[in-house]
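Please, structure for the following, as tokens.
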Amino acid sequence: MTATLPILPTQYDPKATEAKWQQYWENKQVFQANPDRGGNPYCIVIPPPNVTGSLHMGHAFNTALMDVLVRYHRMCGYNTLCLPGTDHASIAVQTLLEKELKQEGKTRYDIGREKFLERAWQWKKESGGTIVNQLKRLGLSADWSRERFTLDESLSRAVKRAFIQLYEEGLIYRGNYLVNWCPESQSAVSDLEVESKEVDGNLWHFRYPLTDGTGYVEVATTRPETMLGDTAVAVNPNDDRYKSIIGKTLTLPIMGREIPIIADELVDPEFGTGCVKVTPAHDPNDFEMGKRHQLPFINIMNKDGTLNENAGPFAGEDRFVARQNVVKQLEEDGFLVKVEPYRHAVPYSDRGKVPVEPLLSTQWFVKIEPLAKKALTCLDEENSPRFVPDRWTKVYRDWLVKIKDWCISRQLWWGHQIPAWYVVSETNGEIAEDTPFVVAYSEEEAWEKAKRQYGDEIRLEQDPDVLDTWFSSGLWPFSTMGWPQETTDLKTYYPTSVLVTGFDIIFFWVARMTMMAGHFTGQMPFKDVYIHGLVRDENGKKMSKSANNGIDPLILIDEYGTDALRYTLIKEVAGAGQDISLQLNRKLYELKVIERFIETSPNKSRSEAISDLQKKVFPNKSESELGSMLSELAKLSELTKASPMSESVEASRNFANKLWNASRFVMMNLDGQTPQQLGQPTTEALEWCDRWILSRFNQVVRQTRDYIETYGLGEAAKGLYEFIWGDFCDWYIELVKSRLRKDAQAESRLVAQQTLAYVLEGILKLLHPFMPHITEEIWHTLTQSTDEVLALQAYPEVDASAIDRELEQSFELLIGTIRTIRYLRAEAEIKPGVKVPVILQSESNEERSTLEAGRTYIQDLAKVDRLTIVPVLEEDTGQVIAGVVGTIQALIPLSGIVDIDALISKLEKNLSKVEGEIKSLTARLNNPGFVNNAPADVVQGARGSLAEAQKQAEILRDRLQHLKEL
């Protein structure tokens, strides 16, 4: 007695299905790794998103690619670990909390460090899980029991160990150096936290007089206020114009300071006048020149962006106010030559949103060269790690070669506080450049160390700064597994298998991980680095906050489902490392964003809603634009039905629906049996189309495995799409429908059922890494499994004996013939239910043999009642409509089936109507009043309608010509 097999619902509901399986996988700990299980390890440690983050399209893309690899290797039997976690994001969290305090009229100093950190941890508890929940919604098959946070106690221990070991080895030092300084957050920031923006500014030209009164030199600058800290003017030693004055001195305007003229090859003789002012304390290039020539370093700026006492009469002024006043003073004193408009790049603090200031500051640094050497050796001698695509290897290597010492201290409170204690009793209770310090694991250890050196009567103060977040992130691949302890996880899963990441952080994160790992573990942290491109907007432009052209993946998930979005992102990849572009109807998308925004704040008035939207969502839109969009919300459902929000994601949803409907049809025809109950057909019992689909299936198994193994994920996804939609759904299911009828021959019916069930289950396994939710749902219904999941089933293996290329080529010919007959029927407007006679003519014995073997298939799928297959046409067939496939000619006699004259008359009427529409649309688009005054979307709609009408007219003319020639 067989079990009654439930049938899938008539419609697929992605929202309910996806939520169900995400919860099921997590509750049952399906993806929990077990190092004691044995087997070859496969491990991905995810790039930790900022704890303040919310899912953006880059996260969605990266996560989808990672999860395909993880799910595939898990199904292939690897002992798989996908380890998730988040980064504490020092600057982001601190900025967020300081804004909250500002609204309360307070600063962090008002409440103190302890209370500030309490608020930070409370915020993390209440809001820090947003990004994690969104990653779960993407279906990331991670071991959530191993979730890590970079401020976890175990990771903090690892950070202390790394810092202290590097310090004791002489690789961490405290020194005075030029750093990127953000006056807004009053902290040093890394290069990654700096965004270069093109701005319209000025280039000011000034005269600096020679001290001996014999003349002057002309210099140019975009930052006039920095001249107050000039300690030299430099020229190129090979510049004949200035060789005679090298070594002379100048009198610095305003300040009256005597400064030398130096020669340095860094100076470009072609830039400006060939003379450059040198401000070693406020410019990276000048800093290097200052060191080479032993120049004084004069800092003129306070940490809040105002000028200090070294700025003379401008002390206390904001840097930009001082800029205007310095120029005014130089002009009054006769030193201003000219002012030129000048567009140039200015570095901005990503968090503070203000221009950064190169500032001389006492900070902690890591000596990078010794760490980089180990990474370079691994790369050059072992090609470790291996970059995919390979072109990024050179980028990575160049960065390791050109690297400078790394500033790791940040003037913040949220983060890993630097484990150094200053003996402030030695410097009048203040932390100064020369204050002695001890580095220790704890305050108790610090007291013991300090007392041994400075006696019992001392005062200690821990360094208030925290470490750059990239320091802890650099340890991420091994600190998350328990390092420095020799844990079972570390022994089993480290080094990890692959890092999946974007190219934009090769410099800032990938290289820091390889350097840290090489130094502390002796190995590179991952075998491969799979570099993917960017997700660009519908116009192919890079998404950015400033351009306000981002796409929230959750909006598309709500509309189409997670699987559809994942599949679209992966399928769009044309090659490893290539950017992809996501199709989007921006208007519909923005209306959906507004709808969701209003749903989250339902009690606001219209004016309040518009104000909030302008502040938080659409800063580039006017109040009137937002008002119009609010009015259009009522039509959103209607607009969405008329035009998809995203054609590409909708196509993937349609693919999911196609699979669902095909699976439903198959299950309805299995007589309540599972694939296991049906068993596999014997080779002898297989019919021609069964052997064909099994050959195609095994070809796709081989192709998919090969592509995934070589990171060709986009190609794998496209190949599955073509096989599932085309070969299986459109052809094989249609080919066996007649064999599934109750009155069909019993053995043939059983073989069709067995083959359908076997291939469908195989398809679900092949597709699962790409579309995990829908495949899990269908598989459970198909197999009626109660204690297993598809995610842990074995990935299909290739059965080479089932592959028959000659058979596949024969079927390609057969399918081409059926398509041609169907096209001819449509051309002649023959109704679908009408069967027609068909003549197939080919001089090839092989082709005729193939057609004979597929006679039944041609008659069933092309609705043919009398099929004639001949080598040569020997008699007049009357009026026929004909087409060609390969060297086969297909003909449909039309006598008694189609009234040619009536059909011609009908098509001529249709053509006349379309031509009238073309004339009307052309007139509108040639009218400047319409083009210039109508809304842009209306004009674009008219252009689209014209293009469509022109295409229709072209098709109708071709059909008419064809019919008139009969």
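Residues 689 and 732 are 7 Å apart (CA to CA). The mean pLDDT is 92.
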